[in-house]
## 1
Amino acid sequence: MGPMVLRTLLAVLSLALAAPPAPAGPDAARELRRLSSTHAAERESAQRWLAVHLAPADLRAVADAARDGDAETRRRLVHALSGADRHFELIVALCDDTGEPARALGHDALTALARAWLPGLDEAPVSAEDVAHAFADRSADVFSVPARHTTLRERIESIAVESDLGLPIVMTPELLEFDRPELRPALRGTALEILAATVREEGLSFGGVGARDEEDGPALLVVARRGRARHESGFDRLEEWCLAVRRDGADAERAALALASSGWPGALAWMEARAVPAGGEPVPGAALEGVLAAARRGLVAPSLSRPEARRALLALAAARLDSDDPAERRRGAGTAQALAELGPRGPRGEDCASLLLQGWDPHDDDEEHWMRCVVLEGWRSVDDELARRAIAVAQDPARAPGVRLQALRAVAAVNARGAVLDDAGVRRLWTHCAAQGGEEELLGLLGAVAGAPTEALHDAAAGFGDARYAAFLARWSLRARDREAWNAAWASAATDGFDDARRFAAWEGAARDARRLLGEGAGRAWLDGALAGAAGDASVQRFAAHAGLATSDEMREWARAFAARESLTDAEWIAFGHLAAGPSSSTVRDRLAEGVEAAGPGRAPALATACDAAAEALRGARRDQELRRLSRAVWKAVRDAGHPLHERLGPGRYPGRVELAPIPLGYRLRRPPF
């Protein structure tokens, strides 16, 4: 389905929605007249009937009743309309009427619906400062978002969906109009801190609207232009967005996205009825974009699960990803992610796996393969043929690394195995993932679907010249329980030493894997060979102490040997600091304080690192009293204001605060890798 077809369908829908409504049926007209009866019982009976039977076709008659009736008639109409979300279409149509009585009736009914959904929506918004105060006493996890080329909406959605904030976050339509992918900075903190930093970086503001039933604080957050979020109620924005979706103009799609992110059930059901007519296929347009956006946040419209709707959406996603327009391609990726949320079965329990197989050709472009693998990952279908198709994509050397990575995700999601990857393929995948901080995910995927790395892969890694890649293959072998391959890789790495910081970090991860998966004894056994060949290598000793693989006797011997030396190199000072939690910790503590006190500008950075390593080791061993003694000794050593480490290691600055390992955000977002 190309762009021309989409525009044609949209035009047909617009004409259909713009057609004048049919006149009210005789029953509705009769009950509307009964609202003006002189008998209270008849007026009450008419209100109850209208609450159940009014339909969008009754628009003109309801508008006339609002114009000609008295205050009680209008009040009863408001109660009749606001009693159920199924009157949403009629209410919004009244808000869009040219007559003031009808507009007022629609406004009051929509206000009542909104209040029933979330109380306080028509009140002044809560400032960002008050929102922060409301969240101050809640325990919050620490999150991180990497520096990434992304849109503001994608970043906001990752905070809303993947963090512990627990609130919908709504971006106003005017912000979405010019939202383009940009390189946005890395951030770290609580979810609210990351949101505040993101908004501040963009020159925007946010406010809270609505009220929770059982706890203080707003019910949702609205991100808007600076100052606007502080002065408009949540309801003012909701009515404006509903009218924009109904009019289906230039800003209709952005309004639909804002409505969808609010999570208003009535609005979502209304957009679903407009986007997916009963028994029909989805109709491209603003309402459909809103329904798809809600599905990506886990609010799946039931009508999307029908096989006919799935088939049409698969074709729509493929057509969009095939477009040359970047915005249309982003819509295609969003459509695929919405499809992935539907699950493998239709509303009657029918298996929809065959829909993914239809038209899936091995010679398709990367876009088609990526889209189907995204959907398969979400559906987790047990169909064997789907698993074989995904494995074929993962093994295809002609495919882009991002496409092959997505295929691996799909294979792992359906619990299949048997993917065979050559050296070039694994290396390209590793390079792709390492650049985006996704090495851990790749390790898990390869261990799940590809077995252990072959001897040929290890041999090729030795000639590649990047120790991080060799460590990656070693960790893969370990997770696949290939001890022989792991042992050889480990011995080679330990013989070469760990002076390089990146090499140290890569192999430290490997050592921690060994201790966690196979026990401390196994990790220790592998280190023995390295220590025998490099007994005086400070980098190996530092590594052994930091990774928890050195024995007490070894740590005692190393500590005494270092303490007896008149001078130490930078590497030896850092290794010495890692021994602070060993059996000769008092020796380390005293010698370290002496070294700090005598440190000149050239040696100061290494000694600061050594002190940090000592603090980390003592904290990890929960030896708080010894850490306090070390801190006091270091403070005393740098007490002179002219000391090069006076500011770095003085009271209140050393030891530094323990930073919790952050939870990454954005891991659920599937971006097209092309």
## 2
Amino acid sequence: MNHVSYQLKIQDISSHRIEVTLTFMPELNVHKLSMPAWIPGSYMIRDFAKHLLTISAFDTTGPLSLEQLDKQSWQLTCRQQPVTVIYQIYAYDLSVRAAYIDDEVAILNPAALCLGVSNLTSLPQHVVLPKPELPVAANWRVATALTPVNGTLTLGFGTYQAADYAELIDSPLLAGIFNLQQFNVNGVPHYLLVTGNNLADLPRFAADLQQICQQQLAVFGCLPADLNQYWFLLWVTEQGYGGLEHKFSTLLLCNRYDLPAPTSQQPDDNYQQLLALCSHEYFHTWWVKRLMPAEFKPYQLATEQYSRQLWLYEGITSYFDDLALVQSGLVSPERYLATLEKLISRVNRSPANNLQSLADSSFTAWTKFYKQDENAINTVVSYYAKGALLAFCLEGALREQGSSLQQLCHYMYQHYLETGTDEHSLFESLTALGFTSLADSALDWVNQSIALPIQHAALRLGLELTFRPASDHNDLGGAGKQKNDINCPAYLAAGVKVQQGLLTITQVIEGGAAHQAGVMVGDQLLALAGWKLTEQSLPQLLQRLVSGSEQPLTIYRKDRLLALTLPIRPGPSTIASLRVCNTDKASCWLQQDTTTLAAAIADPAAPVAS
């Protein structure tokens, strides 16, 4: 046997159990079997082995000694004959990172299912997927970027092969009822798989994806040399959102009504968000799945693998994901600028913006960014969001000097593809391209806890950026807010949610009115200025109470009734408003005509194209 084989048998849908049969020919007297603790692209220890229910090993002679060494590995004593290991996995993780089965779909991430065999990870790895013998699975098919072998038909149940264990755990499988659309990008087949039966315009979705892929390809000049296929595996459910990149595919999760309606002409907010998610994961085909931090060469999945570069890979990807939508003509410049306003506002209002650097945010992702609590707004910088704004600043500076961020990414992809990047590679690349001063500035942007020069970058790209106070905690600007005629009510600077019929504090921004009043997370708001507080009355009261006054606030804190004093005043100007002030620069950057948008903003009574 010159390969390692895993049979993934859907044993019991109701109890969400998968029986895995691992077979291999041992090369040593003792082999170590290990389950990954995390999956590349999602930087948190997941402990997939916790879902392993039972395990046993034997050969033709009889049972084999199998001793658990730690939370995710076992020591197997072998004889010189083929080994069989059988174990059960509980598969009910509704995410793109692990394994999930029900009567509609099976989501199978080998990283959460397949024990790696020491000394044999470089061998070809087979996945055998038998069809469930259940009526609900009668019309199921299989989709994966793995290669069908041993007579297995495309989209059929059977045997699939990965070149090695690293490729295996980077290749999700999806089984169920789905619709399949195909399109080509530079002659390479791309597939859009959408689970279930949906009231959606899937041919339009595929056509939009094709435009996005072409736009992302333009950043790097060509597809990766080894890319012979690509799969968008979209799992549609009632509630869910997310994506995870893989070398030849992406596994995505969305709500049913994120899909484009058959009658819609322009993307709504939900569909725009879904397109941006697809755009983000596809950009990773180059920018993390091939070019990656040097410290990830190779991945070590038994424990945390630290990098100060996540901002570089996720931030730049987050910048290009939305930009591709407007540059390809799928969304209007107006919608793109509204999305950019929200991004700037989200970063700008967070006290963490001046507390944690992007490099530190990357390094502590394992324990901070991926494990956020109610205080995260005050302490954790998003290397996605602020990283995207750093990319925006780089774009402005580079375009002012006759270059672009696209050219920088293309240079880095060409020069570091084999070795990977270290934490100095971006700055060294800027210097090599002749932008020494920008390299020095970027070094500070990355390593210091400072606000980025976003207003200056905006001007360089033909935009004027101003800020105003928030109308409420959910106000991040963007479409739907009247940018030039906002009343400035008192700002609580706290998140609230109705729980058990009472307004409950979920988040407190340091320095804001709620913080000054002594409000804490978990407090239940009862009355303000003698008036009962409800979800509807709170914004009305904050609008009407005299600015500059101090008003009594009555709360429950656990089982105590307390009286506090809330200062009534507007919040700081943290919410972004953008307008086009130089159509030549803006149109060149967005690759779309912004003349009409600039005219409409100059004359608010004029109609604005959507």
## 3
Amino acid sequence: MNTLTVMALHPASSGFAHAGSPQIGSDHSRRTLTAAIPGGRTSPLGERHPYVSLHAQPSPLPPDSSLPLPDVQDELDHTVLRSGRTLLARVTRGVLMAQEGGMFEQTAALLTDTHRRLRGHPVAESVTVMPGVLLNLGLAQTLCGRFAQAEDHLCEARSLAEERRLPLMDMVVRQNLGCLSLYRGDASGAIATFHGLTDRLPPERREALHVDLAEALLAEGLVEDAAAALVDGPWADGAPASAHTMLVEAKLRLLRGDRLRAVELTRRVRYTFGTGSQWHRLAARLERIAVRGDRSRPVSRARNALAARRPLAVPEPRGRAAPHRALDALERTSSRMPGPWLAEAGNDPHVVQAGLENALEAGDAAAALEWAELARTWAVPRVPGPGVRTPATVSLAEHYRDALAGGRDPNTVARRMESARWQAHHEARSARSSGSPSPSAPAREHADGPRRDPRPVPVADALSERLGDRAFVRYTRAGGEAVALVAADGRVHARVLGPLPRVARALGRFVHPLLLPGHAFGDDARKAAGTAADALLGPLLPLVGDRPLVVAGDPYLGDPPWGMLPPLRGRPTHLVPTARFWLDRAPAGTAGPAVPGRVLLVAAPGPAGAGREVAGLAGLYPKARVLTADRTGRSEVLAAFEEADLVHLAGHGRVPHRAPMLASVTLDDGPLLACDLTALPRVPDVVVLSTCWSGRGFAGRTGAPLGFVGALLAAGVRAVVASPVPVGDSRTDTAMRRFHRSFAGGVPLPEAVAVHLGPIGFCCFGA
């Protein structure tokens, strides 16, 4: 829920009088009405229309804004001023009823009547009055569920804001239109709108925007992304949270399993507002969801989650939507395989989780594996993948490149890039659902390629036929426990690894020290690696023995260097997003791709070890094309990529926080970015990235893999060798020569990686 613009007069009786406020004199050639604005701001864009949060407590500021009136005859001055004060005071009163009491119905009624009275009144000729009243009225009607009227008033407000050159007001209207989209059921349209505003609104306006964005993401089931949206908000130190903020946080806490904190937040809202307030009703509804009955069954938990995810101002839907129908079907059987009966509910995370937990409770590990596949893919339509490429993202990538090359802080550009990717992805998704073309993305480029067939394709039987002497391990979660599903010897087994926080802590103690450049793998690191291995692999070793592994992770695991875990040292290990990915990409009857013929070796200008490394490899591949020093420009490297079967790239790597598609390797003319690799017309079979961090962004998030690995695999590369942790020059140089000597001699890629590169942090991603 967004904000209301307040236009108020300054009479003493209004309760907003300020000492020293200018008086309205009858001798002015052009009369003005001075506005006392609770919580107001003068726009940095030059507009004289302040904004106050719908849910924030008013904090009066000096009345520095004035609303000009047209020239009138002296005998009409007092009548015009008095009636103008009365009308604008009604606007203030209506806004405060919503702001302080949650009385949205009363606000809508009062503003509707005031809007009618303002038509033709001289005060309405002020550039900000009528669009401000209209956007207030439109939001109030949205919150009351009168969507058609709200759309009419918000669109009229936007037209007036554009006509009168009020850019800040135009952005506020757009934010309110995003709320209208959310409450109408178009969460994608809302997410696109909110991301389009994240870097345009002034900081004091962004708290409400981040709360609105978090609520839209929760409606889509993107719980962790919603948490990130709230964390990123510019929260005012010491300022009390609004009712809307507390209720959205309560939903987030509830969906994360923290029922006590959710109840505490809802009760705080409920005790603050009376029973006639909509905030009280919304808090009571959410509190009932948090405290109500049977949570022992997966379907019951899923139903509660669906109820909690529903946007706060949206009424109870009529009829049974696809997720509810799917839960009804699950409740009628102890174990059920996913299939066409799921329809679009196969893309709902809580339906999928209920199916997974249902199968595990029934002891049907094969069915659990099918559900676990969906647990990894449900977010693909909702989260931008590596293929999002629009003029806006291309331009921001150039700005990021310039910031890196110029030694400037690139983090602001990285955040803008992620917002642009989300905006483009959800604009395309919203346009597809409405049947209209996307406003920002080229028609030929959907965010994740062609639309995905929603019907689940079984994998367990195909795995049994294709694995051979390998074992497949899928990590997932169920009921707060970390779970591993193992396919080996024609059977699927389920093993509970323990409470999710305990497993995550054990893995964190192993990985976090490795993230520091120049780390030493001493006794403490070996002990942490052993503890992590016991947590992740101990219960599985009796099932997998010494077999090569195909591993599909889960976001709670992040991107660990698997080959550094003691049981996996020297063990060939493929890392894949899903079993289906491996089945589609793995060559039949072989452990990996054949030894490539055309080789490209690239040494970036730094570090010094990159040149030595490539020089040593050139002796192993006499016919290789070698690019070094001033020949390592982006255009040369990208063109050479298209002509190679094997690429080895050595250099400095980095990945910005939460923007893995801006992962970079510094070349002669600036950084090569992960997003540069998504448009290659032809790609190699194998790419080796001898850089720090190049394996980051693969598994530690919902949706499709990102970063260099995600971009290359999505472009069609069969296997990528990369490290998710920093790597050192001297150890990497020697290990890479041994790896390539082994690979060029015919050793399968996963085995060559496991023996020579796994112990220093490199992994084999793909088939």
